[in-house]
Design brief:
elongated; DNA polymerase, domain 1; 113 residues
């Protein structure tokens, strides 16, 4: 079989490009971590807003969003502390592991091709 195309390969950043358009998987993990750590609800939009920074800093940034900050103070009577961020971060690490294995197993077939 002859290939006359000058293109030999295409490389994709699958996260948000091919597999998870809109990057719902990472934002869902943050929503779950806040829920698990403190039974506190954040929206997908709030979880997505500081995307692109380290996870611990991401949690802290979500806690400083005006709407989140107001609800946090209403629920807990104080602003989110670094200790609170640590608790949510620990929950995030627990939320991430099983889902990562499930997600990876779903996409091994294309990689084997």
């Amino acid at each position: 079989m002859s290939n006359s195309s000058p293109i030999q390969a295409i490389v994709f950043d699958w996260a948000g490009t091919i597999v998870d358009f809109g990057s719902f998987a990472p934002t869902t993990i943050f929503v779950e971590a806040f829920k698990q750590g403190f039974n506190f609800d954040i929206t997908l939009a709030e979880a997505r807003e500081p995307m692109g920074i380290g996870k611990w800093d991401h949690i802290k940034a979500v806690g400083q969003l005006p709407g989140v900050k107001t609800r946090w103070i209403a629920q807990f009577g104080k602003e989110m502390s670094e200790s609170d961020v640590d608790t949510i971060y620990a929950a995030l690490c627990l939320c991430k592991k099983p889902k990562s294995r499930i997600m990876l197993s779903r996409f091994l077939m294309p990689l084997r091709w």
